[in-house]
Write a structure and sequence with these properties.
The complex is a heterodimer of chains A (319) and B (348). Chain A is mostly helical and 319 residues long. Chain A has one domain: ABC transporter involved in vitamin B12 uptake, BtuC. Chain A is built from 12 helices and no strands. In chain A, helix 1 runs antiparallel to helix 9, helix 2 packs antiparallel against helix 3 and helix 6 crosses helix 7. The N and C termini of chain A lie far apart (63 Å). Chain B has a domain of 230 residues. Chain B is built from 16 helices and no strands. The longest helix of chain B has 30 residues. Chain B is globular and about 65 Å long. At the A-B interface, helix 3, helix 4, helix 10 and helix 12 of A face helix 6, helix 12, helix 15 and helix 16 of B.
């Protein structure tokens, strides 16, 4: 097998697995930059995946080939709605943000499975008829070499994810809104003194995280799993959290980390068919994202520091 | 109202609110809520068999709750109970399968192996926290997944020949008891509950009655003050995570040596570790509270299995209720303010 053929397998697969991680990781970025730790990303992805699949199954006859995209919008809205719980608990009620995130995770999987049984009378949905399908992107796929490697046999969603990453970077670092968001996450009291509404900024941050994680779940469900059951999302949200840290709380870093983790995930799945990976147990690839994240936090691979105020509720007047 | 009273009332209100919202969900989705709760009760206490199963479920819940609570009391959040539990499970089964020893040696050895494995899995985040100031929440989450994949790998390659589960552990390392099983109409109740209750006592004694426990709690309250008082903060953080991990590893031993008697490849987590967070929170991180909270969640979980059969209600409803209870305990700021308002009105 030549290098070209190997790359032709690996690159599209990497992009496929990275897309949900990019969306969700960016969501986590908005929340944590505003100072709210979001362990609930996993649960938000679960509810996004559930919503997308149910929406897709219900409306596929009406919407035809637009179904998966509209389903993503639905997943986005429901993800944002669920994240309100996290926002209310951790911002208004000043509860422990990690505990509230754990509650979101438990709630999401419980509610989603309860509703699947309520709607379909069984533990797993049917397989969707119209998911995101592999395409050759027009024009771009005609570029010699690169077109075949990057833009053929791939999914639109992956490129939307990358575009959203650049958009998130622009919003966070080039607009007044982004500056305020980060200020609230670094030093809420200073931001408050300058007239920024800390509570409102944090609510917005958490809601964006819910919306993006919902999309992430929807993308995963409609391009990778194609149905929804108890194990559809198992650890994707936590891996996105890992990407957020490995990417050092920077949208483009998150994108890079997500692409890398997507690469590791796809290798662990298709690795046995590649000649140079045959003899390496895939357990190394499976644990790579997590081990690397720990190493990054430890400072062996460039130190990663969280926004200073993340994890602490802001109480006016407290020093 | 005194703080002590509030600490009892807040969890009770949280449970009531959780059940209330659960009821509303059932009514909204057209299920018969009354029948569901009767089925839940019958499924937990209706027959002696079910009660045996409840106690069996409560056993790992107590230990997982202790693990979370012990770390909490010393200022750490151990979200990695799940991973520590899985490695403890594997270690216990490994010892159970690999050796052939008299029971007095074999069983304690298997139990200790589980505690040691869990302790090691807790040691790593403890060390990283102490030496590199890395937040333990993230490291323990990552360690959960490392544990999942690594144990799966060991089960597939070392402990079996590419099979999905290990052999059964030998009788000499088993916690199972024909006596207890006979007593409860052949449930899977085993001697582990005694270990769990002993650990409750150990935690209480260690934290409240020894100077080491005082140090651990002091470091949890205020690192700088403890350091000024001459305590070794790093060592206490590591020790706390090690003990917490050991409790979690024991929870794994309950599953490996008691309930199942083998270890199998897992596609996802057992959930016991995360439920341990719920147990510790609801129990207010105290020994007695943990026993009651574990009893509540254990009966909810076991009783729920009867709900689809008897009332046609999906058992996931109970997961929703548990999640809501966690949520309401977490948001207890709201409940406390509410109680304050009510009690002030009472005074006027």
């Amino acid at each position: 097998m030549g290098l070209m053929e190997i790359l032709l397998i690996i690159i599209p697969s990497t992009l496929l697995w990275a897309a949900p991680l990019i969306f969700t990781g960016l969501g986590g970025n908005f929340s944590e930059s505003s100072g709210v730790v979001n362990i609930g990303l996993e649960g938000l992805m679960v509810i996004g995946a559930f919503t997308a699949i149910v929406f897709n199954l219900t409306f596929v006859d009406v919407l035809g080939s637009w179904t998966p995209w509209v389903a993503l919008l639905a997943a986005m809205v429901v993800g944002a709605l669920l994240s309100i719980f996290h926002a209310v608990a951790s911002i208004t009620f000043r509860s422990d943000q990690v505990v509230s995130g754990v509650a979101i995770n438990l709630l999401a999987i419980g509610a989603a499975l309860f509703l699947v049984k309520f709607i379909y009378g069984k533990g797993q949905t049917d397989i969707i008829q119209k998911g995101f399908s592999k395409i050759d992107i027009p024009f771009l796929s005609d570029i010699p070499v690169i077109g075949k490697l990057l833009f053929s046999n791939t999914y639109y969603t992956s490129f939307v994810a990358i575009a959203v990453a650049f958009l998130a970077w622009f919003v966070m670092f080039k607009t007044p809104f982004g500056l305020r968001l980060r200020a609230v996450g670094e030093h809420p009291m200073a931001a408050d003194t300058m007239g920024i509404n800390v509570t409102r900024m944090r609510y917005i941050g958490v809601l964006i995280s819910g919306a993006l994680a919902g999309i992430g779940g929807g993308v995963y469900a409609q391009s990778i799993s194609s149905d929804f059951g108890h194990a559809t999302i198992s650890g994707q949200g936590f891996m996105a959290l890992a990407a957020l840290i490995f990417g050092k709380w920077h949208p483009l870093g998150v994108m890079g980390a997500a692409l890398f983790f997507g690469f590791a995930q796809s290798l662990s799945i298709i690795g046995s068919s590649l000649p140079f990976l045959e003899n390496i147990p895939n357990v190394y690839l499976l644990i790579a994202p997590y081990v690397l994240t720990i190493l990054a936090l430890t400072g062996f691979i460039g130190r990663a520091d969280a926004p200073k105020a993340s994890g602490t509720p802001y109480i006016k007047g407290n020093r | 109202m005194s703080n002590r009273m509030k600490n009892i009332i807040v969890p009770l209100v949280a449970v009531l609110l959780g059940v209330l919202v659960g009821t509303i969900i059932m009514i909204a989705t057209g299920y018969n809520a009354g029948a569901a709760f009767i089925a839940l009760w019958n499924g937990a206490f209706g027959e002696i068999y079910y009660s045996g199963e409840v106690v069996r479920q409560v056993t790992p819940y107590i230990l997982a709750g202790l693990a979370v609570a012990f770390a909490f009391r010393t200022g750490l959040f151990n979200i990695g109970v799940e991973g520590q539990l899985i490695v403890g499970w594997l270690a216990a089964v490994w010892v159970g399968v690999a050796f052939d020893l008299p029971k007095v040696i074999h069983l304690p050895l298997a139990v200790l192996a589980a505690a040691a494995a869990g302790a090691f899995w807790g040691f790593i985040p403890g060390l990283l926290k102490a030496k590199f100031k890395v937040h333990e929440v993230i490291v323990t989450i990552m360690m959960n997944y490392v544990a999942l994949h690594v144990t799966n790998y060991f089960i597939r390659t070392v402990l079996s020949d590419k099979s999905d589960r290990t052999e059964m552990i030998s009788e000499s390392s088993s916690l199972r008891s024909p006596f207890l099983e006979g007593l409860t109409d052949y449930s899977r109740l085993h001697w582990g509950i005694l270990i769990a209750l002993t650990c409750v006592f150990i935690m209480w004694f260690l934290l409240e009655k020894t100077s080491k426990g005082y140090e651990l709690r002091a470091v949890g309250f205020n690192q700088h003050a403890s350091e000024y008082a001459g305590m070794n903060v790093s060592r206490n953080i590591i020790l706390s995570m090690v003990i917490s991990g050991a409790f979690a590893g024991l929870a794994g031993a309950m599953e490996g040596l008691g309930t199942f008697g083998y270890a199998a490849i897992k596609g996802g987590f057992t959930g016991v570790g995360f439920d341990g967070i719920a147990v510790a929170l609801l129990g207010g991180n105290g020994p007695i509270g943990i026993i009651f909270a574990a009893l509540l969640f254990g009966s909810l979980k076991v009783g729920a299995l009867n709900m689809p059969l008897e009332a046609g209600v999906p058992n996931e409803l109970v997961d929703i209720i548990i999640a809501l209870i966690v949520f309401f305990v977490a948001a207890s700021y709201m409940i406390r303010i509410f109680i304050d308002r009510i009690s002030k009105k009472g005074v006027k």
